[in-house]
Amino acid sequence: MPDARHFPPAPPLTLAEVAALVGASGEGAALITGTAPLALAGPGDVTFLTDRSFLPTLPDCRAAAVLITADLAAKAPPGGPERLIVANPKLAYARLAARFYPSHAPDGQTHPTAQIAPDATIGPGCQIDAFVVIGAGVSLGANSHIGAGSVIGAHVTIGPGARIGPHVTLSHATLGAGVVLLPGVRIGQPGFGYVPGPVGLEPLPQLGLVQIGDWVEIGANSMIDRGPAEDTVIGLGTKIDNGVHVGHGVRIGAHCVIVALTGISGSVTIGDGAMIGGQVGVADHVTIGAGAQVVSQSGLMRDVPPGAKVGGTPARDVRDWFAETALLARLREGRRDKTR
Amino acid sequence: MPDARHFPPAPPLTLAEVAALVGASGEGAALITGTAPLALAGPGDVTFLTDRSFLPTLPDCRAAAVLITADLAAKAPPGGPERLIVANPKLAYARLAARFYPSHAPDGQTHPTAQIAPDATIGPGCQIDAFVVIGAGVSLGANSHIGAGSVIGAHVTIGPGARIGPHVTLSHATLGAGVVLLPGVRIGQPGFGYVPGPVGLEPLPQLGLVQIGDWVEIGANSMIDRGPAEDTVIGLGTKIDNGVHVGHGVRIGAHCVIVALTGISGSVTIGDGAMIGGQVGVADHVTIGAGAQVVSQSGLMRDVPPGAKVGGTPARDVRDWFAETALLARLREGRRDKTR
Amino acid sequence: MPDARHFPPAPPLTLAEVAALVGASGEGAALITGTAPLALAGPGDVTFLTDRSFLPTLPDCRAAAVLITADLAAKAPPGGPERLIVANPKLAYARLAARFYPSHAPDGQTHPTAQIAPDATIGPGCQIDAFVVIGAGVSLGANSHIGAGSVIGAHVTIGPGARIGPHVTLSHATLGAGVVLLPGVRIGQPGFGYVPGPVGLEPLPQLGLVQIGDWVEIGANSMIDRGPAEDTVIGLGTKIDNGVHVGHGVRIGAHCVIVALTGISGSVTIGDGAMIGGQVGVADHVTIGAGAQVVSQSGLMRDVPPGAKVGGTPARDVRDWFAETALLARLREGRRDKTR
Prior knowledge:
The structure is a homotrimer of 340-residue chains. With 340 residues, the first copy, chain A, is an alpha/beta fold.
C-alpha cells in the first residue's frame, strides 16, 4: 500500500464502480481502496495479471479483484480475487492507480517570492512555487504548475496543463499542452557548435528554438539544446528518461521512447514510434526510421531503416550483433581447447 | 599545501600528538601543520607511502613524517621523513587530512529567505541556506546543512548530520544519518514507466518511495527515481559518483561503489559490496551478486554471480572478455599478414 | 530567419559594409539584414557554402550574398547570390551571425533578491539575476552575467566577461576571462575518493581547487570535480559539451573539444587540441597526447600517443578497430554460409 502521507488516497469505490470504470463486468458492494501489484496486494486492492507464469499464484493473492484478459482468466486456477476481464489489464491498472492516488493538482496560488515579468501571461489555475523566475513575454497555459526555483526565459510559450518540476531552466522554447518536465531539465541552451579560428574555436551562434510537442515527458537532468538555424523538435507524446542529451537541431517524431543517459548528436532525425535504449549514442546527421528499435549502449554511425532492430557499436542488425558475439565466444573456447 | 582561504587549516599538532592520533609510536615536538601527498609535501606535512615503487624517493621527501606499513618501512632506504608505522597508511592519512582541514560545520543559522513549512521539524544546529524550500511535514535531523536553493518536498525525512549541497531536489524519500548529496542531485522523481494506450503512452503511477541509508554519498547531478510500488533502496554506506541514474525500484546493498555516468535500470538488485565502474549499463530486473566487480562501460543483460568480475557488452567473465579482445586482434593481424 | 523575439536583429548593413567586415571585396548598397544557412536563406541574408556538393544549388539560392572560397567560387555555376570571397567561409559566417543577432549583453543591474556577501568584489557592468547567492570573498570580473539562482561559493574568483547561466553551482574554483557556463554546471564539488576503513568507506578529503582557463565553455549539467591535492585544470579555450564528467585532478590542455556524456576519471592528463567524442570513458591516470582524436563511445584504458586516432573498448588504433569490426562480420557471414 503506498505511503498515505506521500500518496494520499482518494475515496474508495465499490467493486461494481471499479468494474464500470474499466469497462469490465463485475458486481458487488465490496469496497476497493487502492491498487497494488500481485505480490503486494491486500484485501482492499485491485491488482493485475499479464504474465502467465504467475497464474498459479492467483488463488493465494489477497487482492479483492484482478484485472486480467479473458484468455488468461480461462487458464487461471479457481479461487483468489474476483476477475475483472479487460483487454489491456496493465493499462486499466495504470488508470485505476491514477484514480486512487491522484497526483497533486495545481493549487492556483503564486508564491509571493516568485518573480514574474509584468508582461508575462499566466493562465488561470496555475501554481507557481517559491523562487520561480518568469521572464518577459512568457505565456503560461492554464492549470500549469511551475516548481520551486525554475527559471523560464523570455518569450517562452508553455501550453496548458504543464507540470514543470523544480529547478528546471527553459529558454528559446515553445512547449505544447500537458508537457511534464522533471527536476533539473535544461531546455533551450545553445547547441555545441564551434568554428576553428585563428586563435581558437569560435562559437557558431545558435539561432533556432526548441519545440516540445503535446504530452511530451522529459526526465530529470535531461538536456535539450537549440540549434544554429533549424529548430530542435520533440514530437507529440514522446517520452525521454533521465540524463538524456539531445543536440542542436535534432528532430524526434511522435510517441518515441528514449531511455536514460542516451546522447543524440546534432541534426539527427528520429521517426515516429522509435524506441531507443539507454546509453545509446547517435552520430550527427544520422536518420533513424519510424518504429526502429535500438538496443541499449549501441553506437549509431549510419542510418537505421524503419522498423529495424539494431545493436552494438557500430550498430548493426541485432541478430548479426548477437551472432558475432556468440561466434567470438566460440572461437575463444576453441582456441583455449587447442592450447590444453 | 591546500589553499588556506578555501581550506582553512586547524591548529598544528606536535609529531607526538599526530602519532598518538593514528596509533603509531612517534615522538618529538616538531609541529605538524598539515597533510600532503608524497610529491607535494613540505616540512610541516605528514604524508603517506603505500606504493613500493616510490620507496627510492623517500630520502628526498621533505615531509616531517610519513605514514607507512612496517613491511614497507623495513624496505625503505634511510633518511627522509620520520616513519609513523600504521597498518593502513592511506586511511590514517585521510583521517589526518580531515583533522587538519576540517570541513565546514553547520553554523546553526537559517537564512531569512528560506521558506520552511510551519509544520516542518528542524533539528538543533542545522544550517539552512538562502532560497531553500522545505515542505510540509518534513523532518530534518540535527546538525544538518541544506545548501542554497535546495528543495525538500513534503514529508521527506532526513537523518542527523546530513550534508545536502546546493540545488538538490528531494521528494518522496527517507534519508538516514550522515547522508551527503552533492549539488544537483535529484531524488524521488517518478520512474520511467509507461503503458501503451489507444492514443499514446500513458504513465504508470509511481507510488513507491526512495530510501537512502546511513552514510550514503551521492555525486553531483545523479538521479534516483522512485518506483511504481516497491521502494528504491540504497544501502548503508554506499557511494555513488556524479551523473549516475538509478531507476525505479532498484535495490542497492550496503557499501557498494558506483562510478560516474552509470545507468541502473528499473528493478535491478545489487548485493553488498559490489563495485561498478563508470558508464556501465544494467538492464532491468538483473541481479548483481554481493562483491561482484563490473568493469567500466560494461553492459549487463544477465545476472552476475556474487564475487564475479565481468566486463564487455554483453558482459561476461572479464578474462573471457579480455581473451576475446586479444583473439580478435590476433585474427586481424593474421589476416593482414596473409594479404601482404 | 531567426525568431525576432528570441533573437532581436541588429540594424542592417550594406553589402559593401558586410564585405568590409569579412575582408572580402564586394560592393553595392543592397541591405543585408541577417544570416541564414544555404537552404533557408532569403533575399536579405548572407549565407555560406563550403561543401562542393551544394554548388549546383547555388543559382537557386535566394540569399543576397554567399561567403565562399576562391577555389569553390571558380567552380560554381553562374547566377545566384553575390560572391564574397573569403579564406574561411564558415568562420566569416559565424562572426556575421554574431554581428546580426548579438547575444544579450549584461545590463549592469543586480536584482534586489540576490544575496551578495558584503566583502565580495563585483566588477563594473555586471548583471546579477534573481536569487543568485555570492559568497564571502568572491571576486567577479567586469561585465559578467550570473544567471538566476546560481550559487557562487566563498572565495571563488571569476574573470571578466563571464557568462554563467542559471542554476550553476561553483565552489573551490578560479575562472579566467570570458568563461561560459551553461545551466546546471557543477564545478568544485569534492571528487570521488574513498579509503576502505573498518566499518565502511571513508572519504579522502579533497583539498585541491578547480582552475578554468580563459574562454573555456562548459555545457549544461556538466560536472567538474576538485581533487585531493593537485588542482583540476581546464586549459585555455577548451570546449566541453553537455553532461560531461571531469574527475578529481584531471588536467585538460588548451583548445580541446569534449563531446556530450563523456566521463574522464581522476588524474587523467589530456594534451592540447585533443578531440574526444561523446560517451567516451577514460580510466584514471591515463594520458591522452596532444592532438589525439578519440571516437565516440571508446573506452580508454591505456595512454594514447599524440596525434593518434583511437576507437573501441578497449581503445586501439581506429583503423584496427574498424578492421576488427569488419573481420568479425565477415567471419559471421562465412559461418552462416557453411551452415546453409
